[in-house]
Amino acid sequence: MKTSDFDPASFEVFNSQIRWATIFVLVVFSVLIFRLWFLQIINGPVYRSKSENNRIRLQDISPSRGLIFDRNGKALVDNRPSYDLYIIPEEVQDQGRLLESLDGLIGLDPQSTGELLDKTSRNLPFKPVCVKRDMSRNELAVIETNRFNLPGVLVKVKQHRRYISGNLGSHLLGYLGEITEQQLRTAKYPDNKSGDLIGKSGVEWKWQTTLNGKRGGEQVEVDAAGRKIQVVSKRPPVSGSDVYLTIDKGLQTLAEKSLKGKHGAIVVMNPNNGEILALASSPSYDPNLFVGGIGKIDWERIISSEDFALQNRALTGQYPPGSIFKIIVALAGLQEGVIDPKEEIFCNGTYSLGRSNYRCWKKYGHGKVDLHRALVESCDVYFYKMGRRLGIDRIADYSKKFGLGVKTGIDVGREKSGLVPTKAWKLKRWGVPWQEGETISLSIGQSFILVTPLQMAGMISAVFDGGVLHRPRLTKRVGNARTETTHGIAADKKGFVGLKQTHLELVRDALVGVVNEPKGTGSKAKVKNIIVAGKTGTAQVVALKKKNGGRDKGEVPFKFRDHAWFVAVAPAEKPEIAIAVLVEHGGHGGSAAAPIAREIIKAYLGAQG
To answer: Model-level pTM greater than 0.85?
Structure first.
């Protein structure tokens, strides 16, 4: 190009473009450098953490739940492996397609599973969600075979609770259920997370923290497909401690077998320290149904049944005690001086008060009876008169001394207190004064008074243990059998009834006669070579007019028939076992409940015949 052709204006434009281009490049590079500096220096730790999270997966390790044994070390509850299926919502690209695949492979319901995942993924998208517990080995094999086509699917091996003998001891052992969000927000479950199973009743509930243990965890390095490469670090879980109960498995089995096909409860106790040897309630249920999440059909069947199988009748069943309450009336009368054991009362079969007539169970009466004979033959008229002499409030005071009207304090909790009525109670509750006729009925264990079978076992134990009222207990010791680190649960004396030993002896002698004398109402509890002492009771459910000879004819509907009671100890001279038997709508205690007690006493004491 010739010099004459040079255009200064064009050259200036060119230089300006070069400058702007240079500035633009410098700005771009400055922005890039700044951005790199910001990402690597300022936000470097954040992205480094995210990178590690993509490479390192944190996994919980649930602890092994403690086992439950009977007093002799026989296992009642243990654990077995459970293969649970989880889905990590954030790792699922096509949820609908994944759920269709799982439905085809193992029959997983797409709708309910989708709803569960949607609910969880809103707040915790990276949290694994359990969609199926306790897969079968065939289901596990199918999932593992198709893992590459199931993104976001995870299989965890967890402990599955197993109640070894099914229904055996279901009410005292309790069952497991999934922890609720409300429970998680409390401080009572520090080692539990959403999806965990916790004790909902019985021993499983009472010793939840002890049985649960402490969870562990591990950092696992995974590849792009989520496959495990290696464990980076690990904190092992701490297994839960074992619980040893006071229950004798063999005796528990016999007690439940005795109630098969019946509604009722049996409590067997060591009268010297309050240890529960057997605690049966019928009908029962299988706690294994609850471990993996009970199905809707099973749950509705249980809760809609009139059997009320979930109710622990031994602790929460409240019944009128019937004639076994005469023991307390007799002791109260002796202590208060209103009963002379030698005084004879004439029983002609009825007792009149005003315009009302109160019948004795024996239609034509017992004739002349003293205290001993009145207890042995269970004369109602005798106790009508003695109860009237005592009055309601004194009867109530002695009832409470024997632990009635209050919870026993048994170490599995969730019991009911029953009811001991007083004049003040009725006035407050109903707004009307107490009637003397109500004292008459209460004197033979009717009217408003309510007791539990557990309270009755404690009452008869106190009578034969010198008036000492023991707090019943189901737990013998807690600890880990594998490391032999156990601690016992000490016996606890709840109170002392404060009665003269001579009065207790008079009543004890009469209770021996109930079983062993010719006219005793509890003769069907008699055991060869063992002196059994006891008391029968027939508790009226509703007032029915007598017709054609009695209440127990076939025309009386089952739900209106009398409850059958029997309480006993053996051997009477030095008791080793106390028992309370209740058979709902069983009729007479002597025929329905006493034979059950006899078989349990024979089995425990090793008697023949």
So the answer is: no
